[in-house]
Each structure stands twice: as C-alpha cells, then as structure tokens.
Amino acid sequence: MSALTFTLKQDLQQSINCSALTPDNLAGKTAAEIGSIELIAGKHQLLVADIFDISGTDTQLIAFKNSSHKLDYIGANMTSGSIAIEGDTGAYLGFSMKNGEIHCKGSTAAFAACSMRGGLLKIDGNTGDFLGAGSEGSRKGMLGGTVIVKGNAGERAGDQMRRGLILIEGNVGDYCGSRMVAGTIGVLGNTGAYTAFNMHRGTLLLKKQPKLHVSMQDCGTHTLPFLNLLFKSFSKYNTEFSKLSNQRVQRFVGDTAYNGNGEILVLTD
C-alpha cells in the first residue's frame, strides 16, 4: 500500500484545522469517506475533497504535499503512525501528540509540539514562538516526547515545559526555557534575552554563552561524564547534537527567584 497523500489544490485564504487528518481518525475509512470529512475554516466548514487531492490507501503513513502555513493542527492528538509534510505548515503542529512520528520538511508557525506528550517531531526548517509550550490558558507545556529543529526557533521555546527533549540546532529567541518545570532543551546557536527566566527545574544545554539575568548564578566549570551518555542517546535522531563530545561545561543555576533548582550547562571549548 502507498501512503495516504493529501495534495493541496490551491492557495488558501484562511487557516484550516486539520486535526481530523491523523492515522487514528482515518483508520479503516475509504477514500470517499475521507473526502467527505468536514474541516473547520474560520466560521465555515469545508470538505477534505474540496481542499485536497487524495491518493494512496495506507492510513498509517500520511503525507501532505504542496503544504501551506494555513494548515493548522496537523497531527493533533495522534497516537500512532507517521505524518510527512512536504512544505511549510501552520500553528499547533503535533498539538497534544502522544505517539508516532511527524516530519515537517519546511518551517512551522507558532505552538509546534504544544502540550506534546510523546512521539517524535522533526522540523527541518524554522519554527515560531512557544515551541513545546502550553496552549493559551494552560499551565502545562510539553509533557514528553522528542522535538528536533534543524533551523531556528522563536521566543518562549519550552515555556512551562514539564518533561521531554527539545533539540534546536539553530538560534532561539528570548525567554528560552521560561517557567520551565522539567525536561531538557539543547541549543547549538545563539539564545535571546532572559534565557531561563522564572525557570523552576530542568536543564538547558547550550553551545554558546547566553545573556542571563541577575537571578542566575555562576557555579564554575565542571567535568560531567554523564554527558557522554546523553550525547550518545542523540545519535538515533540524526542531529548535530550527536557530534558533541566535550564533557566540560560552565554551570549556572537558577532562577534563584524560584529556589534555583534549574541548571544551564554551557559547553566549553
């Protein structure tokens, strides 16, 4: 069987909620049944067949072609299978994802991996603000799983993150790790202002010295052998992080306004 493929027919005028197009929801459905599914577009509802050309039959392997930044909530709540996206995608990619794999070969809008609980999300391009954060009004960010971003991330990456792993090969905006409760965020590029602001616990692994606020405390230089095991664990993800080998770090703790249990590890040359 070939992958169930949704090819966007034309440019979209407004954002469309694609949360219904997941392996879980489409299992056992025929092409006609899938085409008759209604998707929410603002105040309107559109049929899948009106928006996409549909081909293929394997609902556990879903592909989006000619994708657009107007396609929101791709992979929301999915628990199995895989989704491949050729092009950019909109907001809330992998929202509350529990298992499976999503691979976006372009860039994404804000709130990618929002409230994610498990699985693997790979983004080859850039991603917007609030990567791995909580949704509006929620006090819980990412709760598990792995996110790999080959490009840059926006502001508030990992905001209120509680578990899981985020690896960003490029730069990240202001407030990275803000209000972070647990988990690990790695950044190979530059970080913006107020890194780890109001951080409760968790770990930031950085390649470059961040701009830290006054409530982050310098604890000196240390050799941490456990980092070798951490770096080896990255090898299965085909990321630049798996090439790291230096176990010598400059360690900072904080935010001391929140008992100072979080840590920032800056890899030294």
Q: Using DSSP, what is the number of strands?
A: 17
Termini gap: 50 Å
Helical residue percent band: under 10%
Radius of gyration: 19 Å
Query: How much strand?
Result: 25-35%
Determine the mean pLDDT.
Answer: 95
Note the main sheet: 13 strands, mixed
SS-based structural class?
mainly beta
H/I helix tally: 4
Strand order of the largest sheet: 5-1-6-8-9-10-11-12-13-14-17-16-15
What does this structure look like?
It is a single chain. With 269 residues, the chain is mainly beta. The chain has a domain at 110-267. The protein is built from 4 helices and 17 strands. The strands form 3 sheets. The chain has a 13-stranded mixed beta sheet. The chain has a two-stranded parallel ribbon with strand order 2-7. The radius of gyration is 19 Å and the shape is elongated.
What labels describe this entry?
mainly beta, 13-stranded mixed β-sheet, two-stranded parallel sheet, elongated
Short description:
The chain is built from 4 helices and 17 strands. The chain is mainly beta and 269 residues long.
Topology:
Blueprint: E1 3-8, E2 16-17, H1 23-26, H2 31-35, E3 38-41, E4 44-47, H3 48-51, E5 52-55, E6 58-67, E7 71-72, E8 82-87, E9 101-104, E10 120-123, E11 143-149, E12 163-168, E13 184-187, E14 203-206, E15 217-223, H4 226-233, E16 248-254, E17 262-267
Parallel strand pairs: 1-6, 2-7, 6-8, 8-9, 9-10, 10-11, 11-12, 12-13, 13-14, 14-17
Antiparallel strand pairs: 1-5, 3-4, 15-16, 16-17
